[in-house]
């Protein structure tokens, strides 16, 4: 089936959504999981009544507090803890990934031991860099459309997930294959990389067209490679001119004209 090759134009934009995740909240119940970013502060709720509490104690593999005082030990939390003497809530400042773990609050109320409050704290590195997006595109003569293959990657050390959004539809995964027709016009693709405390996104815009200028190309035509190859071909024609010092200025003007001509031809 006759058809030209793909002319598919991509524009890049970056969208930063850092630290605004729904999961970056403290637990609404006494027991539960709290997600926080490195460097944050967290207040761990004791859920103790305001009166009648005796022998309150926070533990994290070892005793952190006893009665209404902090236990001063040479441990990882030294200098980073605050204990509320009324509510017995425990605040941990300047969180590190090593602070992740289970915190226990034990107390007696009116002489009877209360149920132990268990809080699982999870501290993650925030995603600080936008994802990298790579793509390949080709013209499908049978479908009269451009097939766009996209890949998203991240340099984040923490566990992350990927998703793609196009035309208000979102799919999970780091790769996507999508068909764009010339009638679709500009089509936006957004890759989002996220963990439970942060996310960042990168967007590109694709436009598919089957133009007469592209008919000499083969299936799998890549516009960027086409432009570079055409420019290199034209430069080689002036190779002999480069060796003549007296024609440097003239050569410079020719290079500019060739670049402009090739750019217009490609686009």
TrEMBL record:
The stretch of residues making up the signal peptide is 1-27
Q: Name one GO cellular component term.
A: membrane
| Alphabetized PROSITE patterns for the sequence | IG_LIKE
Keywords, alphabetical: Glycoprotein, Membrane, Signal
Where does the UniProt annotation locate this protein?
A: Membrane
Q: Which domain of life is it from?
A: Eukaryota
**Alphabetical list of InterPro entries matching this protein:** CD2/SLAM_rcpt, Ig-like_dom, Ig-like_dom_sf, Ig-like_fold
Domain Ig-like: from-to ranges: 131-205
Q: What is this protein called?
A: Ig-like domain-containing protein
């Amino acid at each position: 089936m006759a058809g030209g090759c793909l002319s598919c134009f991509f524009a890049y934009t970056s969208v930063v959504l850092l630290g605004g995740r729904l999961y970056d909240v403290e637990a609404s119940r006494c027991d539960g999981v709290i997600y926080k970013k490195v460097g944050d502060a967290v207040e761990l709720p004791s859920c103790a009544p305001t009166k009648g509490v005796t022998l309150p104690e926070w533990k994290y593999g070892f005793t952190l507090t006893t009665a209404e005082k902090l236990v001063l030990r040479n441990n990882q939390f030294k200098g980073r803890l605050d204990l509320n003497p009324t509510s017995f809530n425990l605040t941990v400042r300047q969180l590190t990934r090593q602070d992740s773990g289970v915190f226990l609050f034990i107390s007696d109320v009116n002489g009877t031991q209360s149920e132990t409050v268990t809080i699982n704290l999870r501290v993650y590195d925030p995603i600080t860099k936008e994802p990298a997006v790579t793509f390949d595109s080709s013209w499908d003569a049978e479908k009269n459309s451009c097939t766009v293959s996209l890949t998203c990657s991240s340099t984040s050390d923490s566990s992350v997930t990927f998703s793609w959004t196009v035309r208000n539809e979102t799919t999970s995964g780091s790769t996507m294959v999508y068909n764009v027709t010339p009638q679709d016009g500009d089509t936006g693709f957004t890759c989002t990389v996220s963990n439970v405390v942060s996310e960042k996104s990168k967007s590109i815009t694709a436009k598919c067209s089957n133009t007469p200028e592209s008919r000499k190309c083969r299936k799998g035509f890549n516009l960027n490679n086409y432009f570079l190859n055409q420019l290199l071909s034209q430069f080689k024609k002036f190779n002999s001119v480069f060796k003549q010092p007296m024609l440097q200025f003239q050569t410079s003007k020719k290079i500019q004209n060739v670049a402009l001509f090739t750019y217009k031809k490609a686009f």
